[in-house]
Structure formats: C-alpha cells, structure tokens
Design a protein that fits this description.
single chain; globular; 15 helices; 8-stranded mixed beta sheet; alpha/beta; 443 residues
C-alpha cells in the first residue's frame, strides 16, 4: 500500500511526524492510501486509539483526508499555480476583453486623496497600539451598512476581499472542513479554499444567485461554511434577489452553526438593491472592498460580523500584518467624502456596456448572462475551441475553466471598456465561435 515506506513511532506524535516527513520528502505522494488504523496499530504494536489520534492530528494539519470506509489518503497539494494562469496569451493587435479590470476612465484620481491623508498623518501620526481602524472610515462604512440592512457588528479592515475571506475561514475552520462555494465562481477563491486545506462543494448559480436546492444539499451534507456573492458575482454578474434571499434565509435557519460569508465587492458600481443574509447564523461575516469602484491597488476591504468572528480576525491580524495602513484608510475616507465616484453614473455606464453586448448576442441566438458588474458569462459547448477561434478572430476572452469546478463550460467577456462600435463585431465573432443553438444553462 505504501510501496516500501514504513511508518514508524510508538506515540501519536511520532506516528504523525513519520507520515508528515514522508509526505514532505515525496516518499508518500498525494492521493496515496494509508493503512487502516487497526492494521497500522497491529504493525506498530500500539493501541488503535494511538493511531486514531495520529491520523486526527494529520487531518487537522491538512496532511491527510479521510473518506469514511474508503480510508485515509495523503491530501492533494494546495494549488500553487492559480487559475489566473489558465488564460490565453494576448498577441499584439488582439482586443483584450478577458482581464476583469474596471475602466480606468471611471476610477478617481488618487493624488489629492493621498496628499490629504499624508498631511493628516504628519499632524496626527499613527503609532503602535493605536486603533487599527480609522474612526471616520468606520463611521461612514457603518452608515452605509445600516442603510443596506446589514446587521450591527464590530468592524475590521483587511487588505481586500480575498484577504478578509481567508481570515474569516481561518478563524473558524480546520483543514478537512468543507466550504460551499458558487460554481461558476471567483477563480481566486476556488484556489484559496484548497490551499487552506479545506474542501470545496460546488453550489450552482443563476441570475438570482445561489440555487436554494444546491445550498440545501451542501449544508445537509455537512458543509461548515457558505460563501455568497450578493451582487456583481464573478463571472456571471448574478445578483441575489429578494425572492432568492428569502429562500436562502429559510435554509440557513436550519443550520444555525454554519459560518456564512457574504462578499459585496461590487458596492459602488451597482445600482441594484442589496438583500443581505447575515444575522441568521451564529457566525457570519460581511465584506466590502473598494477595488472595483476606486482602484484595484487600493488594497482595502471593510469587514463586519458577529463579535467572535471579528475579534478572532483582528486578534490574528495583530500577530501578522498588524493593521491595514491608516494612511490608505484615510485616503479612502477622503475619496468618499469628496464624492470622487458617483455610483449611479458608474453603475449605469457598466450596465449600458453589458446590456449592449447581451442584446447583440441575443439577436444572433447566443445566450449570455450579466445582471451586474463588469463581465458577461456565455455558456459554450466547447470552451477550448471557442477561446481559440475568438483569439484567431482578434478577441481574447477568459476561459471558463478559471471559474468552474463542475458547472458546464463557458467563457467570460469583460465589457468594462467595451465601445458601442465594438459590441456588434464582438457578438458576430462569438456567434461564429460558439454557434447559435438551444439555451444552455450554466447551472
């Protein structure tokens, strides 16, 4: 079973260390089956409870995974090459509609905001031991959260949405736990979960958000956490509707111990209402970043949640980065105070560009989705072929493999900078590449 490697040790810690050393050296490979506990106990001359304790330590460290009667195996290695590298190179002369980036013309100038933040820092420098959250940032963010119906809770600041989500997952889960996540969904999140030693269970989505039946099955099967994108879902543009939110809340009430994480990274570029789910489960977190509306290099996200969750996040943060620079926080406050971004104008601009392409595709018999945000999701029968044919036609699109686990194939087109004169030619190229046909659901 172990192809010559002999596990050694008399105590649980020694047995666990023996396995971990072999995994680190490559003598035990990912997916390799370990001996049944009683068999190994007999071989080592120890009590089966000792081996059980060793396997438990290995599971908690993310070294092995156990699947009931199918036994224990060495876990697959965490992804070190992210889905961001699943892409087509963009040759010169090819229009790039794959990036997922906002329109630079709709982002505010940062110079005055950082100059003002720097002047304030000179007068009132932030020192070790000071509050990690800028008071004015907390006040403004809390007012917006209150207006959107997000429950009261303490605030923390993280370096973007993914940083916040990672910290919340680490605050509550242990390696081997299962996280229910949207499929198709955010590629970076799909990479992050296994990198933390966690398992992913996919939940289908439609234009109104996660499918209630899929969520129910995932939670009933033992998922410890659920991550929901409230608006501007990547890659589909889905928005959780009032009806869908009611259905999801009904399911969440049956699982009060679930960790619920909501991602509202589209705040500031979407004009559709928020229908939060937070507050039903004992532990929850709600995350808002400024990247889409104010610029990707502003690594800042506001996090609120129940007291235990936020306290754990802030406590762990103190032992690492310490805090997100108050200089950056003060610059963001200045941008907010100056009204540097008009959400209605930005949302309308992005909506107009999305809708233009979706209508053009519909006229050519091609299904597409994009209720909000920067992207349009197009189901395709042959993902690789569609990407290659579009590249040959002068358009670089994002392959759906970056965003999928078990959902059907598709491609993502970023419309954030799509010109009115480009919608027709792009729709022609897509229709030629994928071909019109019956509606293909991405669920």
């Amino acid at each position: 079973m172990l192809e010559g490697y002999r596990i050694e040790g008399r105590r649980a810690a020694e047995i666990a260390a023996s396995v971990e050393r072999a995994v680190g050296s490559g003598e035990l490979e990912p997916g390799q089956l370990l001996p049944p506990m009683r068999e190994l106990a007999t071989d080592l001359g120890v009590n089966p409870n000792t081996v059980a304790a060793a396997y438990r330590v290995l599971r908690e460290r993310g070294v092995i995974e156990t699947a009931g009667r199918r036994g224990s195996r060495v876990r697959p290695r965490p992804a070190t090459t992210g889905r961001e590298f699943v892409r087509a190179d963009v040759p010169a002369g090819v229009r790039n509609v794959a990036s997922g980036n906002p329109d630079l013309a709709l982002l505010p100038s940062l110079a005055k905001a950082f100059a003002a933040a720097g002047e304030l820092a000179d007068r009132d420098p932030v020192l070790y031991g000071d509050d990690p959250v800028e008071p004015e940032l907390a006040r403004i963010a809390r007012n917006w959260l209150d207006a959107d119906g997000v429950p009261e809770g303490p605030l923390a600041v993280a370096s973007g949405s993914l940083d916040a989500i990672e910290r919340v997952l680490a605050a509550h889960l242990k390696p081997g736990d299962t996280v229910a996540v949207e499929d198709p969904g955010w590629g970076s999140l799909l990479d992050l979960i296994p990198a933390l030693g966690l398992r992913t269970v996919p939940v289908g989505v439609d234009d109104e958000g996660p499918l209630p039946d899929d969520v129910r099955r995932a939670l009933d099967s033992g998922a410890r956490a659920l991550i929901v994108t409230d608006r501007v879902q990547n890659p589909t543009g889905a928005v959780v509707s009032a009806t869908r939110a009611r259905a999801l809340r009904s399911t969440l009430r049956q699982h009060p111990d679930l960790l619920l994480i909501e991602d509202d990274h589209g705040h500031g570029i979407v004009d559709l209402p928020l229908h939060p789910l937070a507050g039903i489960t004992r532990h929850w977190a709600f995350v808002r970043s400024v990247a889409k509306a104010y610029g990707p290099d502003l690594r800042l996200a506001v996090l609120t949640g129940d007291e235990v969750t936020v306290d754990r996040v802030r406590g762990r943060q103190r032992l690492g980065a310490g805090w997100v620079s108050r200089l950056v926080q003060r610059a963001v406050v200045r941008l907010w105070a100056d009204g540097a971004v008009d959400p209605k104008v930005v949302a309308a601009t992005y909506a107009g560009r999305r809708d233009l392409l979706i209508r053009a595709l519909a006229e050519r018999g091609v299904e597409a989705h994009g209720r909000s945000g920067l992207n349009v999701w197009i189901p395709v029968p042959d993902e690789t072929g569609a990407v290659a044919r579009l590249l040959h036609a002068g358009w670089a699109v994002a392959p759906g493999a970056r965003f999928r686990t078990s959902s059907p194939p598709g491609i993502r087109v970023t419309t954030s900078t799509l010109g009115e004169e480009e919608a027709g030619p792009l729709a022609d190229a897509v229709a030629t590449a994928v071909g019109p046909g019956p509606t293909r659901s991405y669920m």
